[in-house]
Design brief:
alpha/beta, nine-stranded mixed beta sheet, four-stranded mixed beta sheet
Length: about 220
């Protein structure tokens, strides 16, 4: 049976991601695991997360999951969610500076709290960015199948991905500034928002991931 492995590193509500995957693909086996061999055997890997990126990177290292995660990034369909997107960049400003996996070009920056203003209403915007917001698809991708342009997804974050190469940007969102809310590179697709909390559109995205072979036509 095809297996989707959700990386378990004791951060965030990871079981909600598992439940959503089980809902959209009941014919597949979904496992929440920190076992390196289980991750290597899986057909697909999901890297979700909430909280601080420093704790995320440290937990992966302590559990011996860093190397197997890097292997998955090279060899199989891979979905990153929230911290699972941010950790793919070279560097994050959070916690005084944390090195990521340097898979995607760019950095993760904190929203400038004193400069966050809605361009239409001119009202101050709160940080963290929390709630529903549009994602503008910047290029076609199998993960976007059946999801209309500018669909709204659910966000919770204080830091954002600032990509330096538009080649790998798959979606952007405006919140006082324009940031990368979806990135794609070869067999990797990663999002800042939470598809497991984004109702129909989020479930469609997860459904697309369960059938995606890791290639882009």
């Amino acid at each position: 049976m095809t297996t989707i492995a959700v990386i378990d590193y004791d951060m965030g509500n990871l079981r909600s991601v598992c439940k959503a995957l089980e809902h959209v693909a009941p014919q597949l086996r979904v496992v929440l695991t920190h076992d390196a061999n289980e991750l290597r055997r899986a057909s697909r890997v999901v890297f979700p997360g909430q909280g601080a990126i420093g704790g995320c990177v440290a937990a992966l290292r302590e559990k011996g999951l860093r190397e197997v995660l890097l292997e998955a990034l090279e060899t199989k369909p891979f979905l990153g969610i929230c911290l699972g997107l941010q950790a793919l960049y070279a560097w994050s400003e959070e916690g005084g500076g944390v090195a990521g996996f340097d898979i995607l070009p760019g950095q993760v920056k904190r929203f400038p709290v004193d400069k966050m203003v809605d361009p239409v209403s001119r009202r101050a915007l709160k940080v963290p960015h929390m709630g529903w917001n549009q994602v503008h698809q910047t290029r076609p991708h199998p993960i976007w199948d059946g999801i209309p342009q500018d669909t709204r997804f659910y966000f919770v974050h204080s830091y954002y991905a600032a990509s330096t190469d538009p080649t790998w940007i798959a979606g952007t969102t405006d919140y006082g500034l324009t940031f990368t809310s979806a990135a794609a590179r070869a067999n990797i697709f990663a999002v800042q928002f939470h598809p497991e909390k984004s109702q129909h559109a989020g479930l469609q995205l997860l459904r697309n991931f369960t059938t995606w072979d890791g290639t882009v036509q």
